[in-house]
Amino acid sequence: MAQITRICLIGPESTGKSRLAERLSRHFGKPWIPEYAREYAEARNNRLSYDDVEAIARGHVESEARGPGPEAWLILDTDLISTVVYSRHYYGDCPPWIIDEARARRADLYLLMDTDVPWVADAARDRGGDAREELFDSFRAALDEFGARWTVISGDWEERFRAAAAEIATLIQRRAVKTTSN
Prior knowledge:
By secondary structure, this protein is of the alpha/beta class.
């Protein structure tokens, strides 16, 4: 069975991750895994504590395990690195097993969503636009800490789509060349 290539959209709230993940999924005809933390937070009226971090992490892992089937690659709307970043941001710590699992399950490519689009309120968002820059820096630092391959995606919605699609196409081409040369 082929190894699954995983592309993850990551970054602060209200930067277009879900919207872009769904569009990229349609464009490439590949599955995407929606953000589990959003579903979890909405089910609890966004009243979360440090005790919820482990349940969110387990939910991410389970969602991904149910996801791809026989597909060679899939698109993730966040992953465990997001759980690490938010846990550290809100609670000052993260359970060590989640950090270890995030490292072990690191995606092949991260598309770090920039904060250059307007913040839009919804039931799962609690920080307003004020914390997005700080969180963006935290995501960038975490991606470096985990040794991830990442690139910033910015611009309006169409520019984001074009840049993300180009990054994915480049990754696919590299993987195809690597496979044929082996």
